[in-house]
Amino acid sequence: MELLLFLFGLLLAAGLFFLAADRLKLPTLAAEKALVSAAHRGGRHSGSLDMLLHIWAQRLSKYIRMDEYRRELLKTTLISAGIHQTPEAYTAYTLLKPALLLLGAVLCLPVLPLLAPVLTLLAVAVYFRESRRASEGMERKRGEIEDELPRFVATLDQALRSSRDILTMLDDYRSHAGPAFAAELDILTADMRSGSYESALDRFRMRVGSPTLSDIVRGLIGVLHGDDGRMYFQMLAHDLKQQELQRLKARAAKIPPKIRVLSFAMLGCFMLTYIVIIAYQIMASLGGMF
Known about the structure:
By secondary structure, the chain is an all-alpha fold. It has 13 helices and no strands. It has helices spanning about 1-25, 30-40, 50-60, 70-80, 85-110, 115-130, 135-160, 165-175, 180-195, 195-210, 210-225, 230-255, 255-290. The N and C termini lie far apart (about 75 Å).
């Protein structure tokens, strides 16, 4: 009887919910998931729980307050990292995820008190990880773009010897660029076609936030103002080539310690194999004697 009452109450609550959702024109869970996936395209895969957290964060974002300077700084970081969220929604998501873990820690106190400190430490770790996600994504994207800048500058140096059409140069290089840089060049060329070239280049510089790219943009703006630009980009290409060689040497210097660790591990495996064989032969010979 109690089971039937429980099932009746559950079905009644579900029916009332669906009737209210239809009356209020609420979107279905599949529609909200599609919208969230479209808003976070290009990022990590979102599961059902993560999708619900994004929806709740979007609804809680209207209660988040921050000063204008911090909001603009966070907005620039999110754009550079390719995260399609408002600063308020991102802050709400950063706080909501560890808050749920802390709620779980509180609920575990009467039942599993030893699990509560673990969930608390996990909530702190999740908060620091989520709060650094935008800056880490921006640094990763900036690093991918900066790795291409020496080749980009060398291409501009060659193109300026026969043409002054910056938009055509950018369009030609876009088809050979990496994913991160190609996406930024798509935005830049579309911005240049719809408005001022100089303003579009300045917004491009602010989005990426790279000092090296700022030097490149400064040279391109000089070309727009009528400067020759060939000597500038020739010297810049030489400097970036030297910086690239130093960066490659620094990366190569980190490889031998890793190889040394693997070499010692392989040597240990070989020695263990010989020791096992010798021990087996000794045991076999002793067994034959007795």
